[in-house]
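Here is one chain, start to finish.
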Amino acid sequence: MSRRLQGIEEFVAAAEAGSFALAAQRLHVTRSAVAKSIARLEARLGTRLFLRTTRSQSLTEEGHGYYERCRRALAELDAAEAMTDAARSTATGVVRLSMPAMLGRLRVGPLLLALARRHRGLSLELSFNDRRVDLAEEGLDLAIRSGELPDTADLVARPVGVQWMVLCAAPAYLAAHGRPAGLAELLAASALHEAVLYARDGRISPWRFHDAEGRLIEVVLPSRLRCDSAEVLLEAAIGGMGLARLPAWLAAEALAAGTLVRVFEEPQPFGFELNVIRSSSRYLPYKTRVVIDWLAEHLPPLLAPPVAAR
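Its structure:
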């Protein structure tokens, strides 16, 4: 690496992340490596780029100006690398991707394994969890998210399918508690039913439906089970613990086997859009574009559409 470029990537990462520790996480190096690299850069430039205390760090006036120019320089380098990438017929390098746990294990993971077999130079680092991640802080290239996205210019999103939702329950549960014929009857008899509900960080996700006029209706039923695992909710519903609002692809096998049944047919199905997101501040490398294109082509058919109630 040219001596003039040494320390620039670490400096830009530290300026954007807000700390040496987060920059180290993003670059997959140690905090001391980042600190030493920036110290050498400051010594070479003969100026301080950061004001550091035991509790915080911020850019100096010189650091602000230097950061803007370095950021643009790195963007140009990314663009130059992408031009060479585009000439290749195979993807090479590491792509780091986070995705919802159950969806990732059962649908996305197998797809990406197939992609890796096609591109022998492609390496994947996959994280399976349901929390919202910060791409820059955690050094991720991509993340798959379900539902609404924040209104921000920092992210670029591409749709890769829809998670259609179904209301289902075990036959024994419906025999004991009754089977609502539609949304209105469910609302009227809500006190007679129990639900197994998805919740994260103490916050329950209400069920969403479209009524016959297309209006969005939110429903929360009494519940003895609230958790952040779709797999546990599926097993609880099969075990007769209550009504469940599940992704159709997840419930499909149990519905086909008859261990779950669709409670009623909805006039307009409701679904959460799935998007693969990336940072808008970086040029899109060929390896990353290959992953996004692959998911956009192959994931939608694996997300089962709503099935008719029996």
